[in-house]
Amino acid sequence: MTTRLRVLDDGAWISVNDSREVRVSELWRLDAPDLCECALADLVVENFQSVGVDGSTVEARVYGQCIACGATGTTGWVPIGRVRGGEFAGLDRSAVRRVRR
Amino acid sequence: MPTDVENWKSEVYGNDIRDRLFEFAEEGYDSIPDDERDAWFERFKWWGLYHQRNGQEGYFMMRIGTPNGVLEPGQLRTVGEIADEYARGPGVNPIFGDAYADFTTRQSIQLHWIELSDVPAIFEKLEANGLSTQQACGDSWRNIVGNPVAGKDGQEVIDAWPVIRELNETFKGNDDHANLPRKWKVSVTGSADGSGQGDINDLAFEPAYKAVEGGGDGGDSDGDGDESGDVVGFNVRVGGGLSRNEPRLARDIDVWVPPERVPDVAGGLSALFRDYGDREDRYNARVKFLVDEWGADEVRETLQAEYVDFELETAGRDVREEYTYNTGEGERNDLIGVHDQKDGRNFVGLNVLVGRMGASDVLDLADLAEEYGSGEVRLSQRQNVIVTDVPDAALDDFLDEPLLDHYSPDPSPFMRGSVACTGTEFCSLSIVETKNRQVRFARWLKANVDLPDDVDEFHIHLSGCTASCAQPQIADVSLRGMKTRKDGDPVEALDVGLGGGLGENPQFARWVTQRVPADEVPGAIANLVESFAGERDEGESFRAFVARHDDDELDAFVDPEETDYEDPMMHNTKRTWYPYAENDSMEDAPPTPADD
Ligand code: HEM
Ligand code: SF4
Ligand SMILES: [Zn+2]
């Protein structure tokens, strides 16, 4: 079964199978040494740049700002949830996310 | 690889969308196949319908494009009636009620909570009254903007209204220009005040004089021109826009056109954008990025070589040194108040706080426009309305009307200067709540802050994200949605920029203070104004004051502080289905209207 993954409305959403699942304006805890020097970035998600899948893990690259240090930029691939049997389950908002290397 | 949007557009786009839209409306929202929703919602934008954010499934924002902001007699009433009948949804706004129209920064009108099943009836009513939503959103010619009082303005160099009408007729519904890589925003201004805001549009025509042989193709046939005998036409600029932290001013491509050739040049540039714009990456698609890459010279050369069949003139003598609109200096910074028309009557600009007006007020205003003027009303790019054609003899009675207590021709500077975008109430991209917040800000500032006596305008623009729909970068104080932590908890916050403005030498705001918790912003502005009042040179404008200080000094002036201002929207308003609902959680979201 293929999963339709899309960035919609100029980066406002990740749509999974034509359902709007992940939105901008959340704060994510992010282990992203390429983005800033904070041990954990506190990232305001402003814009989704692209979405993809690695195994069953749905990942996105996001533009945002770390509110702990002020750095802005686009992240590498960050997990946002999983698809199983065509169903999407988003990652918990408080989860610490690690950028795939 | 072409983007999803490009694939969808290549399948069905433009006028062809309409038939399917009407079928879906007929058969109900649920008749849109699940696996085609993303595609259809993207396409519906071309017909002015934008699906609202999540929690509001099945409801649409509808944008009506009113070229140059002109509402002919009767049209405002049509808008008011449609808002009253159809723009009501499950969410009720605590300040504005449950049916209202938004006047926008591009002289359009937005209605919310529109149901798909009502679209055919609304279109029928709009079109019967000469109004349309065609291309109000989506990747093509958007609503054409300009000086809203074109044809009437005493300060006019050339009447741009016939030119705008012709462009509108030529390029709305024109299959050759229906599918562009991205939105295409055009401004045509004929007045010397700069109120068309050409600098921040993809394509701008600005008034300019040119000495052309034999009057140049009959360009002076109506005797226009100045004492030198030069002909009046337009200089052309390309590639302005504010979005995505990449604001650009439109670049001068060294072209002057007589009015009758504007459609050729505008069509040539739109075709150039269609053919050369980036369709692989929507974030790089706006023409501003093409101009970055090519430079103005190459744009001109390509236009000349491939898209027009006559010799382009070089730029003429512009009147930019006379620009006043949104400059933060001098006269006519906006179009509020009573102004002379060419024909001896008056136009009266009324302040609409954050551009939103309840449907019953819209209808009352339509009555007043008929009673005291010609029935015509126009919209400015500062989200305000202008009643035109008011004779001197009717002026006093008009100004005494009770409706004008709310929509004042002489408002407090903080009311007058407020512009706000849609924000988390309806917009998917937003980071913070905007319109109601800006109303609260303006009221608090009016009650608590005194500007120096000689300063009667102070522009504060609030945008919920970097798309910059409220044009924050050209305000005295620019506010942009962000997040921060306060006592460890995430709260809505605003970045603060200062000293932006248009004019002969436009300047974008400098972002001097980041992530101020929203409840500390009024205190920050109060402290800023106090520093300005105390330290300015005699008669100095705020913009000039900002220009002679460095970012650190300005950051110190901003000085965020809690005050008795209270902000009820500090939590993540995007996690609600509607920020102002009593039971606001996503679980309480209303069913899609089709399931009713
Ligand atoms: C649901 C509400 C809205 C959404 C989703 C939306 C979306 C956007 C987006 C994505 C951009 C960035 C454009 C780009 O990257 O090329 C933008 C810019 C802009 N929009 Fe909106 N917008 C909304 C409401 C409005 C309103 C109410 C107005 C007034 C007509 C408006 C006027 C503008 C302006 C002036 C800009 C910035 C200037 C520019 O770059 O062209 N938008 N909007
Ligand atoms: S500036 Fe951002 S939040 Fe405001 S209406 Fe535009 S896209 Fe939405
Ligand atoms: Zn950081």
From TrEMBL, chain B:
GO terms for molecular function: 4 iron, 4 sulfur cluster binding; heme binding; metal ion binding; oxidoreductase activity. The keyword Metal-binding applies. Keywords: 4Fe-4S, Heme, Iron, Iron-sulfur, Metal-binding, Oxidoreductase. InterPro entries: NIR_SIR_4Fe-4S (IPR051329), NiRdtase/SiRdtase_haem-b_fer (IPR005117), Nit/Sulf_reduc_fer-like_dom_sf (IPR036136), NO2/SO3_Rdtase_4Fe4S_dom (IPR006067), NO2/SO3_Rdtase_4Fe4S_sf (IPR045854), NO2/SO3_Rdtase_FeS/sirohaem_BS (IPR006066). Residues 52-89, 96-128, 339-402 form the Nitrite/Sulfite reductase ferredoxin-like domain. Residues 137-306, 415-540 form the Nitrite/sulphite reductase 4Fe-4S domain. Pfam families: NIR_SIR (PF01077), NIR_SIR_ferr (PF03460). Belongs to the nitrite and sulfite reductase 4Fe-4S domain family. This is Nitrite and sulfite reductase 4Fe-4S domain-containing protein.
